[in-house]
Structure formats: structure tokens, C-alpha cells
Amino acid sequence: MSGKVSRQILLYGIVCLAILLVPVFVEDAFLLNKYARYLIFGMLAIALSLSWGYAGILNLGQATTFGIGSYCMAMFLKLKTVPIHTGSDGLPDFMVWNNVTELPWIWMPFHSMPFALLAGILVPALFAALLGWFMFGGRIAGVYAAIITLAAMVVVNLIIIDQQSYTGGFNGITDLAQFEMAGFTFDAYSASTYYLVAICLTVTLFLALAVSRSKTGLILQAVRDQEERVRFFGYDVALYKTFVFAFSAAIAGLAGMLYTIVMEFASPTFLGVPLSLSIVIWVAVGGRQSLVGAMLGAVLVTGVQGALSESEAFLETWTLVMGGLFVLIVLFMPKGMAGAFEALARRFPKAAPEGGARHATEQAPKSQPHLGGAL
Amino acid sequence: MTPAREQLLALKQVTVAFSGFVAVDRLDFEVASGELRCLIGPNGAGKSTTLDLICGKSRITAGEIAFRGEPIHSFKEFRIARAGIGRKFQVPSVFRELTVRENLEIGCSRDPGVWRNLLRFSGGVDTERLERLAVLVGLEDHLETQAAQLSHGQTQWLEIALILAQDPALILMDEPTAGMTAHETNMTAELFNRLRGKHTLVVVEHDMGFVRDIAETISVMHQGKMLAQGTADEISQDAKVREAYLGSGGIGHA
């Protein structure tokens, strides 16, 4: 048991170390920016893996909390630009265009960095907790819960677009200052921003691992299997589900804040259906019951997507190619790449590190012959 | 039936109607602490429904259910469980994707809070107790086996072990020997005889041989009402009981 856990920690550590070492080999700022974006998607995949893979809550609106986090950071960075993009009285440019004369109260506290950073995590978490308490307290589960998460996202998205004078509407919030913290300036096209994202990803991954390995994580998996049975042991199932839903939202909120730093704007498209469904696909491809699998799934899919869409040969057909790949993976690897890898490691308990699964060796610690369960 | 025993569970005039159909009709049912009570009756008598009402799976229409003197029928299910009532379902219900050990860890639910369980890792539970329970139900060699791979009888035993891990004062068992081989049924009877006195049990059962093996007192339900109560011999002599069972081919196969 403890051997399995230490193997898992080792594997996760190696993956994170590899991610942190990327800027040593890549100097192209444009590439680093792109990779940072992929890592943020990886964080979203971790968030969904927790709620969907562990607790069985399919969240089709994961991008809602991602978007809320993103807007919190954008509001803070916009107010940082006084007076260039805000006018001398500190009013953001789009507000002036919309004839707003006074900074709305909701914007006021975003002058403060600690508030903005906390809000970017806690507002999504509270939003999810409220929605979760309503859903899970009312025993709404499965497809119905998924529909509610989707509907809630559409509502938040519409509100943001509709309240143009406060949110920038369709255009979102643009022309932001660079994020500065502890004497560092995080230029979107620099190694520093990549490191910021990579460190946040590492912390998130290990935090999520701790949750999944705790007894709470075990109970969540039991809820996924047999919700009724868990309830009759005396566990407050609604509270457990609300917790994981809110924790997952907090991760998405953090990812959203980072996304604003990397993209240098916030937009209502961040809370869109396409992104939300993409997250589901990443997690399904990577393996929803494996945090690191889901994360690598996101990085891999968005990476291949990026490469295909930029290549001459697949310029027209890349969506078709991706679609075909997803269908194949879902059909033949119901547990995603992580599940397939574990099955492979189990089949070749001795041979795996040397030859059996070549692609696996780059992740697998050589001294461990058996990796089943480490993902 | 010893008068010295303290009353643990009391159903008073409990009625439940599902869209007009009265499944349980002004039922009075009392169980004393430490008792092993069997609940029998023809199909549709309302036995499983009665267990559902006690553990909160279904809600009563009228009457009162008291546990240790306190009315519990309006409690949420998890509160009823925390008060000390455990339930084994008719269709064995375990966590199939988890190992036997993980299943047992979930059964140990004395501290059910989200926050404290976040800080509790595999080492945090009483491993010795888990292993003792596994030995009790003969699953000590299967601790790392996924529950989905167990046989039907083993799955039934695992669920019984989960309830014992929960350590409730009152255990409700719905047909624990359903689908078991004769050998497995005998071993289950042996297990129940070992639980006697340590836990209070209410067992719904169809297998009369098994009931004879374990029961002190038998309660017979028919059409939502309590028909008779007594020892195995008293029950099998009872004219009303014989009559109730006639339609279903005799008491042995009911």
C-alpha cells in the first residue's frame, strides 16, 4: 500500500520536474507562452478529474468558474493601468465609452491585490458551493446535474455579455497591466510567467493528489459507485459532493486567473460551451480516474490540436482528425490513456521498464518494475 | 422476550401508503437491546418496506418510529445511521471498483466529517480491526482484491462486514442469505450466532431453515400488519400463520 503511494508521488514528481525544466531547453518566448496555456488547460483537467473521475459529478460547466477567476484577475490588472487605460479618475476605458461616470462598487475592492487573488479562488468556490448545495441537497445527479451546470454557465455568460458597462460585454476586458508580485514582473511572453504557471500546476496536482488519497477521496469514489450505500453509513453525501465540487471550482478559478495573465485579456468566450466540452474530452482521453493522466491528456490534446491546426497538410481537416481520434479513444480505451497504460503495466509486470511499453519508460522510474496503480 | 432487556426500537402505529396502496398498516413492532429478531412473511407483506422505514429510505405516512426513546422518523438518512442504525440491503451493495480493504475503511464511519477525513490517510484507520473483520467473514486473503471480483456469497459477507465496521447498535439485514449456497448459508448462520448479544439484529429472511437456526423470536407480517410473534415452534403451530402462507405454497418456500 505505502509502496504504491510512494511510487505515485515519485511519478507525479518526475512529471512536474519535467514540466519545470522546459524553459531550460526552450528559449522561444512565443512557445513558452503557448506551453503555459497548455499547462493551464492541464489544471482545468485536474479540476474535472476530481469531480467527474473521482466523485462521478459530470460538470459540463467547468469553464464557468474558470471564467470567473479570469475576470477577477482582469479587473485587478485593469485597475493597475491607471491612468493609461483607465483615465485620470481611474475609470476603465470601456466604462467611459458606456457613459459610466463612477467606478461601480463591485470593482472597488479590486484595487487590492490580496482581495483580487482571494476572490479569484473563493468566488468560484462559493458559486460552486451554492450551486452544489442546491443540486446535491436536492438529490439531483447524473445527467440532470450535468444539464444544470451547463445551464448555469450559459446564464453567467449572458449576464457578463449583457452588463457591458461593468464587464466590457462581448469584448471582454482588454489592455491590462502586467502582473507583478514580490518584485517580479510576469510578462506573458517570458519564462517567469511559464514558471508561475508550472509552480501553480505542481501545487495543484499535489494538493489534488492529497485529497484523492485521503479518506474523503475514498468516500467520494464510494459515492461514485454506490451513493445510497454511503449515505446509510452515516456520511453526509451532499456535503461531500459539494466539497469536491467547490474544491474543483477553486482550482478552475486559479487556472482562470493565470489564463488572464498569459492571454493578457479576459473574454466571455472563456465561459463558453466549447471550452467546457473540450475539458471533458481532455479528461476522457487522458483518463478521468487519474489526475496526472487527465492533466497530460489536456496538454497532449491541446498540443496536437495546435500542431495540426498550424500545419499545412491538416489546415482544412484537423478538426476531423481530432474528432476521429476521440471516438477511437473513447471506444477502445474507456479509462483513457492512463487506464490503458496501467493495463499494459499490469500485463508486463517485469518487462515494462525495459521494452514492453516504450512510451511509458520516460515517465516510469526504472527501479520500479510494476507500475500498476501508480497513475 | 426477557423482560429485563431494555427497549431499543419501537414502531408505534406506523403506516405507509404509496399512492393509495397501503404497504404497512398501523404496525406495532418492538425490539429489545441485544435481541436477534427474525421478520418473516409472504411476499408483499411489507417486511423490506418496514426496514426501509426504520433506516429512512422510505418515509412513514403516520405513526412514530423511536430509537432509544427518541423519534427518528423525520431524521435524514445519514443522521439515522449516525444514531446507530445499520442497514444491509437485499441486493448486495458494496463499492465494486474499490478493494475489500478500501470498502472496510469506508465502513468505519465513526468520524464521518469531510474536513477531518481530508487529513486522514490510509494509515489513519485501525488496521487490526479491519483485518479482524475480514477474518470474521473469511475475506482475510482478499483484502487487496477488487470487490467486483468477489463471488456473490463473498459480496454478501463483505457487506455484512461493512455494517459491522460501522458498529451500529441496531443492524437491519434484508435477506442476508439470498443467493447463497447451502454451505454459505450455514456459515452465515454461524456468523450470526457469534454476533448474538453484541449487536441487536433484525433479520428479514425467507429461508425457514436459516430462521430456525438463528432466531429467538420470530415476527410474522402479513399484508402490512403484524400477524403473530413467538418462537419458531409457536409460529409453525399458529393457525393464522399457516393460513397466510397457504397461498404461497407453505411456510418453507415462502
Summarize, please.
The complex is a heterodimer of chains A (375) and B (254). With 375 residues, chain A is mainly alpha-helical.
Walk me through what this model shows.
The complex is a heterodimer of chains A (375) and B (254). With 375 residues, chain A is an all-alpha fold. Chain A has a domain at 26-266. Chain A contains 17 helices and two strands. Chain A has helices at 2-25, 29-54, 62-79, 93-97, 113-137, 142-162, 164-167, 191-213, 215-225, 227-231, 237-263, 273-286, 291-310, 318-332, 336-347, 352-356, 358-361; strands at residues 179-181, 184-186. In chain A, β1 (179-181) and β2 form a beta hairpin. In chain A, α2 crosses α12, α3 (62-79) packs antiparallel against α5 and α12 packs parallel to α15 (336-347). The longest helix of chain A is centred in the middle third of the chain and has 27 residues, at 237-263. Chain A is globular, with a radius of gyration of 21 Å. The model of chain A is unreliable at 351-372 (pLDDT under 50). The longest helix of chain B has 15 residues, at 152-166. Chain B has helices spanning 47-55, 77-83, 100-107, 114-118, 127-136, 152-166, 182-195, 208-214, 232-237, 239-246, and strands spanning 7-18, 21-32, 36-40, 62-67, 70-71, 85-88, 170-174, 200-204, 217-222, 225-230. In chain B, the strands form two sheets. Chain B has a six-stranded mixed sheet with strand order 6-7-8-3-9-10, with helices on both faces. A four-stranded antiparallel sheet of chain B has the order 2-1-4-5, with helices on one face. Chain B is globular, with a radius of gyration of 18 Å. Chain B has one domain: Rossmann fold. In chain B, β1 (7-18) and β2 form a beta hairpin. With 254 residues, chain B is α/β, with parallel strands linked by helices. Helices cover 35% and strands 25% of the residues of chain B. The A-B interface holds A 1-2, 5, 210-211, 213-216, 218-219, 221-222, 224-226, 228-237, 239-240, 243 and B 55, 57, 76-79, 81-82, 86-87, 89, 93-98, 101-103, 105-107, 109, 112, 114, 117-125, 162, 166.
